[in-house]
Amino acid sequence: MKKTLLFVLTLSVLSARTTSVIREYHYVEILKTWSDAQSYCREKFTDLATVENQSDNDRLLSVLQTLGNYAWIGLYDNMEGWKWALGNADFSNEYSNWTTGEPNNNNYNQTCTLMGSDGDWIDEPCSSQYPYRAVCYHENGPSKYIVVNTKMNWTDARTYCRSNYTDLASVSNQSENNHISSLLTENTWIGLHRNTWAYWSDQTPTTFTYWNENRPNKQWNTVKSCVEVRLTTGMWFDNVCSRNNYFICQKVYSRQQQTFKLKFQSEADLTDPALQQQMLEQLHAKLEKQGLSDFKLRWTVTDGQAFHKEQKKKKDEGSCG
Ligand SMILES: *[C@@H]1O[C@H](CO)[C@@H](O)[C@H](O)[C@H]1NC(C)=O
Ligand SMILES: *[C@@H]1O[C@H](CO)[C@@H](O)[C@H](O)[C@H]1NC(C)=O
Ligand SMILES: *[C@@H]1O[C@H](CO)[C@@H](O)[C@H](O)[C@H]1NC(C)=O
Ligand SMILES: *[C@@H]1O[C@H](CO)[C@@H](O)[C@H](O)[C@H]1NC(C)=O
Ligand SMILES: *[C@@H]1O[C@H](CO)[C@@H](O)[C@H](O)[C@H]1NC(C)=O
Ligand SMILES: *[C@@H]1O[C@H](CO)[C@@H](O)[C@H](O)[C@H]1NC(C)=O
Ligand SMILES: [Ca+2]
Questions:
Q1: pTM
Q2: Which residues form a coiled coil (predicted)?
């Protein structure tokens, strides 16, 4: 009777899937520019090295040889990774009106965009050392575009537009550009901006950095958008991407782990080994029916009174990309 009661219970199964990444670093002693190193790594391994935390950086250092001073890793400042404030939309480049030679990130940190009264765009630092007027977009307003005459940094301008209207203005075609520029008398913020050092070569978002003191830094008329690691200290430096360096590639493996939590309520004596075994077998069958294979089941005791059942599925798979 007790068994019947037990197995007619509907099991509630909570499942959590986590994927962990294992990066294997390979030091390559061939001098290449950052983008040639990237191609090489993508061809022979998975990509240029991504470093997500201090223990990764320590492992990175352990593969380095003493020859050479610096080696490329996968971090770079994507000068083309622009976004619109409105909807955080990717800038497709379908329409742009950059002035010749812009965006140039000149003198560093030029990650926000101004439109001049002639309609041309330039990149400028977003900070308050460079306050400008702003042009807001007002989705439901009688006028779609409003010029704010108070000079603010780009971030404050965005806040202002979002509080009072919809957002900083986006520009999607020449007729919009013509219209907006006709409202301007001087350089004015629009919604186009980018985050610096935002992604690694393999598109992992940047969450950890290990910059050397005073890096990244500005250097007049020099754009340093690629990162090299100093072999002796493991500290990172920004440098010109066309410089030739040794480099570090990664081979990436991913491991998937799935955990299920099941709750039983039963009058049955769950400490009975025979009953436990029977439950495991039932459960095994149930999970196999759901298309799971290659898993292990076991009992774990988490407190004195109740038994909690844990099921683990482990699967190793090599993956590239
Ligand atoms: C560091 O990041 C790697 C992925 O690159 C990850 O596998 C590892 O668990 C992380 N280590 C720590 C201590 O967070
Ligand atoms: C913009 O100005 C505000 C003060 O009005 C300041 O708190 C903020 O840090 C500035 N942002 C930048 C990117 O300079
Ligand atoms: C616009 O929003 C800002 C807050 O960002 C506020 O200080 C300001 O008074 C608002 N202006 C108008 C005209 O509503
Ligand atoms: C320009 O873009 C605006 C907004 O996306 C759209 O309403 C308008 O029709 C477009 N004009 C042309 C000529 O494509
Ligand atoms: C940029 O925009 C302005 C005004 O909208 C226009 O007169 C000019 O021709 C545009 N430049 C290019 C290169 O299309
Ligand atoms: C770039 O901007 C960041 C954040 O505002 C600031 O900490 C850094 O000092 C700036 N770098 C240079 C070289 O101006
Ligand atoms: Ca510029």
A1: 0.72
A2: none
